[in-house]
Structure prediction request, 476 residues.
Amino acid sequence: MTYPQLYMIINGEKVSGGGRKTFTVVNPATGEPLGELPLADPADLDRALEVAEQGFAIWRKAPAAQRAAVLQGAARLLLERADDIARNATMEEGKTFTEAKGEVGMVAGLFNFYAGECQRLYGRVLVRPEGQRATVTHEPVGVIAAFAPWNFPIANPGRKLGAPIAAGCSVILKCAEETPASALAVLQALLDAGLPPQVAQAVYGVPDEVSRHLLASPIVRKLSFTGSTVVGKHLVKLAADNMLRTTMELGGHGPVLVFGDSDLDRALDTLVASKTRNCGQVCVSPTRYIVEENVFERFRDGFTERMKAVKVGNGLEDGVQMGPMANPRRPDAMERLVADAVQRGARLHTGGERLGNQGFFYAPTVLSEIPLDAQAMNEEPFGPIALITPYKGEDAMIAEANRLPYGLAAYAWTGSEQRKQRLSHDLESGMIALNTGMVAAADAPFGGVRWSGHGAEDGPEGVLACMVTRAIHEGI
Prediction:
């Protein structure tokens, strides 16, 4: 299977060579190199900024129908190219081909939804006495610097590009160096669908150097970032110097409340699939299983049995349910977290070890009765580790769910309608899933609270986050 040549995209041109530094992209299933990615120098970033400024002047005036046509056209192209895009994503990130192809469909659906939103960016007319008029309008914010991580190499770029394009903004996209081909494919679909080349640029480079250069420029008006809380806090400080608007989708530590009146088999089937999705490298991954004590043993044993049965391997092979971790840093982190938890008294039921002699594979892992001072109970594992602990009663379970400063996604399983209503109010989270593993949809806002960030992507809120609201008062 052939991995594509790598480049940056500036003003529609494929930029590579020229003595630039490069980054070696590696296949996480084998540890073998896939290709060399050119990294931007300061002149490249300055050119991207200059072109993006021109792009905003063009695109802010584009009719809604034109913006919608580009998004719809890109959605069609993505679906036509789905197999190739998904295969490259699996090669560079490790997730299964099925998961990667699902990402392509997710972006196509999001682009189609945003195409409709282009027609619905309404303002309003305020009630005023005769001789006066007042209106409220939404206008595109300007050039957006967008940063995305490696764990959803197709979906993350889709989110970072789709909403600004719908709103009439231009974008400089900086995605993870580990997974460049996926992001380039998303942008190329938009360009092939008629997006003016000045409107969206893709650059790569040393993350801190790129972020400091872009965010220091007066051309940039907004920062959009998906990634860890630590990096997010750093970028917000940089953004403050120019008072940039920000959308920050940061880390989580997904609590899962499981009550005795729930359908345990359905909960287990759903939760194990969610836990092993993308090898647990998901910001909304269910992680802390807060289980009512009367069903704790049944839940723990059922979870362990299912985790043992998960087929791990190269994501391009048929029947594989979980691929490798995306880079060598992640298995190292899993070993550290598991060793610390066991040393502090946690019980290890399965996993807790690397798999194979090549690539970055780590076994699906179940720990139970983990002390609260264990690192894994306070630090986002971002891997295939399930932390299962018994609790007595709803109040104690909610208190544990809200104990950490994160609030991205929370899950609960119960047969009580009254309890579901209480949980929907009492869980401190931007997204709550009740008796389901789904927390995202094209028409729903995606985002967190507290240390998990602010603002939203997806839904009408995702487009409005790329716009500024203005009040216009007139005497007539």
User: Anything to note?
Assistant: The longest strand covers residues 132-140. The domain at 254-441 is CATH 3.40.309.10 (Aldehyde Dehydrogenase; Chain A, domain 2). Residues 378 and 403 are 9 Å apart (CA to CA).
